[in-house]
Amino acid sequence: xxxxxxxxxxxxxxxxxHWKRHEGEDIxxxxxxxxxxxxxxxxxMYYREIYDYLDDNYGAxxxxxxxxxxxxxxxxxxxxxxxxxxxxxxxxxxxxxADGHGVSLVTSSPHHWIDVVLDRFDLEDDFDAIVxxxxxxxxxxxxxVYQRAARLAGEDPADCIAIEDSTNGASAATxxxxxTIGFTGVHNDIDRSVPDVVAEDVEELRDLLxxxx
Length: 213
Hints:
By secondary structure, the chain is an alpha/beta fold.
């Protein structure tokens, strides 16, 4: 296996708890005021597709435009101020890349949020390719982002290792055919039956990666 395809939220940066707070306190009560949406249902999904999911399953009380503005405001706060780097993960990916393996970022976040993260944490030169859900027809849990990332890496998805923290993300990676490591070092919401293996922390993630490379 030669190409590493790594999620951003919940793997490289600790943003998921902040998203849950914003969604639970600020966003979803306005979108579906009479329902409680379990956070894991939408974790890892592209925010522009979450509106359709909520409308189809719960019925949306606000317009798509209002919903997107709520998400944009939350994104500005989370990526610009609240989220932090996951200690040890960027260093691990740099070590893997220095050994000659490609490392790509594969995320549901749009490019303008990705750019904030790369600039804020000095990660601009750490990835060979960046794939956003905005670049494909369907976001996670569909396999499109991982299929595109594998193509850009010049690899068959079966020759790639995906690192994911969410059930939707792991579902996308496994559907694409990548060997998938579920990472619970930041939070523990992933359905452990979906990824091939689970890493509880960065050291275990390092060990599992080295076993496959």
